Amino acid sequence: MKDELHAFYQIFTTTKDAIEKFMNILEPVIQNAKDDHERLYYHHIYEEEEQRLSRLAELIPLISKFEKEKEENSFSPTNNEFNRLLQELNLEKFGLHNFVEHLDLALFQFTDEERSTQLNQMRNVSYQDYQQVKNMLNEINAKFDHNYVDPHAHHDEHHDHLAPPGSSSIAKSSQKKKGFTVGSLI
Amino acid sequence: MKDELHAFYQIFTTTKDAIEKFMNILEPVIQNAKDDHERLYYHHIYEEEEQRLSRLAELIPLISKFEKEKEENSFSPTNNEFNRLLQELNLEKFGLHNFVEHLDLALFQFTDEERSTQLNQMRNVSYQDYQQVKNMLNEINAKFDHNYVDPHAHHDEHHDHLAPPGSSSIAKSSQKKKGFTVGSLI
To answer: Are the C-beta atoms of residues A37 and B104 closer than 8 Å to each other?
Structure first.
């Protein structure tokens, strides 16, 4: 469990930085929007990422706390805080998924080299991180065999057709074939 | 607390139906999208609402369970399940907020009478419901004075400039002036 916690910590710290970079890209676009529709569109995406940033500000220290935990039996469904951690991680799996799509949508519109390079880089990292988080949570849920029912399980089944534009599809298909090994994550 | 739980139950049952109606509007739009960008755009919104629907399928029975609770001391921060309920409600406050914006974005594009009438009706109900949920959670958090820190509190401060297009601004400003009274909610 320690290895997974370390991987979660790295992934969510990385994505926190990426959100901030993405918000910096969006800010001038919102300010210079040509009409209300365009302004609402980018502002809406900005706000969803801002909501995610606030949740990560709570989640990252919680991961960190469990990473330092010495008692192996803390990682148990009888520990309410551990259950909370799993629920939050599951929610942020979808947060990562939605972030990939926000980046994909931005890539359709910010086609200049500077922004598209930056967005593509974040997109590929986030897509890989999403896959890793998904795989790790599947393993953890199976391992603990607790009573936690993934409220998104049905939803997630429909998720492998995430359609990335352009170059990203290569990263996607190679990632898809790679099996999950804890060692490969850190 | 019983009155608020009843109001939450009504609001989230209503919004669950509204999500399904909205997804029905989006489905043919996704199928008939003119290009990949348009398809991803609507598919992304569809998926975010689908995620919310999955969460509500867990939350509504939890509200219902607490609504039937006879012990008044169940509504306490020492009850882990009650804390979980408050956290989920706080998350769905943002779910409702984002839904209002999804509807606003759709209103810019689906301008035919049939869809715009339906979307406007959902938009106004959802906006009022968002305000009620926000007010009720503020009251509850103050009342219980528990250690729960709203991870979105900072974010929410920036939220009163939600900019509705057209007719909806009337509902917004009247709603804003109306104070919170439990009696008015049910």
So the answer is: no
Contact B147, B82 (CB under 8 A): no
Tens of pLDDT, residue by residue over B26-55, are: 999 999 999 999 999 999 999 999 999 999
- pLDDT tens for B53-73 read 999 999 999 999 999 887 777
CB-based contacts of B62, cutoff 8 Å, min separation 6: B81, B84, B85, B88
Tokens of B82: 């009650």
| Whole-angstrom distance, CA of residue B87 vs CA of residue A102 | 25
Residues of A in contact with B152 (CB under 8 A): 51, 54-55
Contact, A116 vs A107, CB < 8 A?
yes
Cβ of A151 under 8 Å from any chain B Cβ? Answer: yes
Report the pLDDT averaged over residues A87-100: 97
**pTM metric for this prediction:** 0.80
Cross-chain residue pair B41–A91, CB shorter than 8 Å: no
Task: Give the pLDDT confidence of B2-27 residue by residue, as tens digits.
Answer: 899 999 999 999 999 999 999 999 99
Give B133-136's long-range contacts (Cβ < 8 A, gap of 24+). Answer: B133/B8, B133/B11, B133/B89, B133/B92, B133/B93, B133/B96, B134/B93, B135/B180, B136/B4, B136/B7, B136/B8, B136/B180, B136/B182, B136/B185
8 Å CB contact between A57 and B151: yes
Contact A52, A95 (CB under 8 A): yes
Give the pLDDT confidence of B93-107 residue by residue, as tens digits. 999 999 999 999 999
User: Which two structure tokens, joined as six digits, stand for A66?
Assistant: 């469990």
Residues B14 and B125 sit within 8 Å (Cβ to Cβ) = yes
Give all strands (DSSP E) within chain B, no chain letters: none
A147 touches chain B (CB under 8 A): no
- Helix (H) / strand (E) element for A77: namely none
